[in-house]
Design brief:
Helix 3 links the parallel strand 5 and strand 6. The chain is about 40% helix and about 15% strand. An eight-stranded mixed sheet has the order 1-2-4-3-5-6-7-8, sandwiched between helices. The protein has 13 helices and eight strands.
Length: about 290
């Protein structure tokens, strides 16, 4: 399939972008997560382009072939949101269907809240609405116990590459060997470049605070339905996989209360965290159906 590779100045940074499909097709923007690049979406690019969509796939700031600012604050969500707006403006796109995985899903949820008029539909893969993650309970806290390690400057940079990237393999790839797993090998190659691992970790450090000691309240505040301004008005599909080691089903299914528009949930059996490659055909079919 023919693709178009180019670099796009989005304001503060320049992003490497792959485009596919007809220029006049309904646009779809695919946002990857940590620690990845636009290459993770290669199967979905083919399927969506064949279905007639104009598919846009950037390396987000800090990743792949895009610019890597060295200041941690440059990775705050407000800058990442501005990158998406800058990309759409540069390509002359008013409204887009947004698909995000992992941190790309975090960015997608944040973008539709900040710019609701620019999103037709939203697909969140693996990561649910931030409000739902906060309410997902102890099991989600246990699965996310690695996050504080990522927040300490220098610590994850030492731990993750050790032992042939043992911790990355255990945390994200269910113990797979680098030599036997092409997408893991690609991630390791990308992260081994000077400054690349710190840039990727900056997404965590710019947007998550170190946990504070928990002091229980005498009278816990009861859960309430989110206010209209916190709800997503467009149609949303949440996709979660049963083999995800870092995210519970509850943090995805609980996202429904934060969606004002139509909500659809899809559960993929057996796939690990890397849904775009672990369940490539299933995810591609879901996207073509939901976005078509």
């Amino acid at each position: 399939m023919e693709t178009r590779e180019h670099r796009v100045d989005v304001g503060e940074v320049t992003l490497a972008v792959t485009e596919a499909g007809p220029d006049d097709g309904p646009p779809v923007l695919l946002l990857h997560g940590f620690p990845d690049s636009r290459r993770m979406w290669r199967h979905q690019v083919v399927a969506l382009a064949a279905a007639g969509h104009r598919v846009l796939v950037p390396d987000l700031r800090g990743y792949g072939e895009s610019d890597r600012p060295t200041d941690v604050s440059a990775y705050q969500l407000r800058h990442l949101i501005a990158d998406v707006t800058g990309l759409l403006d540069a390509l002359g796109i008013d409204r887009v269907a947004l698909v995000g995985h992992d941190w790309g899903a975090v960015l997608a949820w944040a973008y539709v809240a900040a710019e609701p008029d620019r999103v037709d539909r939203l697909v969140a893969v693996s990561v649910g609405h931030p409000g739902a993650r906060r309410q997902a309970g102890l099991s989600q806290q246990v699965k996310g116990a690695y996050v504080p390690v990522f927040l300490v400057p220098g610590l994850a940079e030492r731990l993750l590459p050790a032992g042939d990237w043992f911790w990355l393999r255990q945390l994200a790839w269910r113990g797979a060997a680098v030599a036997d797993t092409p997408d893991l090998a690609r991630q390791v190659e990308d992260l081994s470049r000077p400054g690349a691992l710190t840039a990727a970790l900056s997404w965590y450090r710019a947007n998550i605070d170190l946990p504070r000691p928990h002091v229980p309240r005498r009278r816990p505040k009861p859960a309430s339905r989110p206010s209209p301004r916190r709800r997503v008005s467009c149609a949303v599909m949440g996709v979660w996989s049963t083999g995800d080691p870092a995210l519970t089903e509850a943090q995805m299914t609980g996202s429904s209360v934060f969606v004002e528009g139509p909500w659809r949930y899809e559960r993929l059996e057996g796939a690990g965290h890397w849904v775009p490659v672990d369940a490539a055909q299933e995810l591609s079919a879901l996207l073509v159906d939901f976005l078509g």
